[in-house]
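pinned: reference chain
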Amino acid sequence: MWIDSHCHLDAEEFDPDREQVVERAVAAGVRMMLIPAVEARTFERARDIARRYGFGYTLGIHPLYVSRAADADLETLSDAVRRAQVDPNFIGIGEIGLDFHDGAPDAARQESFYEAQLRLARAWSLPVVLHVRRSADRLLKYLRRIEVPGGIAHAFNGSEQQAHEFAALGLRLGFGGAATFSGSLRIRRHAAQVPENRIALETDAPDIAPQWMHEPSGERRNEPAQLPRIASVIAQLRSTTPEHLATINKRNVLDAFPRLSALAEAKPVAT
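pinned: its structure tokens
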């Protein structure tokens, strides 16, 4: 079974053909997905779509959305997490984190939301889905102070030292379409060298399309059905087989999000 550890299946880009997107994913062997909400207005949408297809979802406020989020959205999140404790499809807190690229929202506001959501994760003993963009050291600073039970540092592109520090704090590192580009040297090096028990595979669909989708005639909207082909590139980088990579990815994602195990066990094995 392939697990897509980060897929925005609730995104509006999938509204015209979401059913077909899921069908293509299942046909490719992707039988489980993790759908991270990104703002308060998408909480119910992410939940409903996850329930419809038997996937997992997380609740959180993405750093790129904090500028349009109200302070009260943190209370909305807290209430939603409390109510979701009895929901078997709910598996953690995310997508949360920090993004310090040019034009990103105010850093202090991002950090305020990030800290509050880490505290919520710790209070409920929930793993997290982390957004890491030019912000690894600051993210780690808070993680050392506010311990959470693991999770995934999504789309990791930090230094080797930062990779070791995230791993030491119990997080897996997510790799996807960016690793298919020959010029993504640091990402490809990490994808090749991260310890076997720390790697997680993802698409970030509809974003971070793999190299072949950037060809002139290609479709730029990424899909979870692309995961096995992305994984085959990462398997080559690691000098292993896609089958072995599928096995360790499943193990690592389920270890990172224990509540996902029951959902995964209910899924038929890919043939």
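why pinned: The chain has one domain: 2-264. The mean pLDDT is 96.
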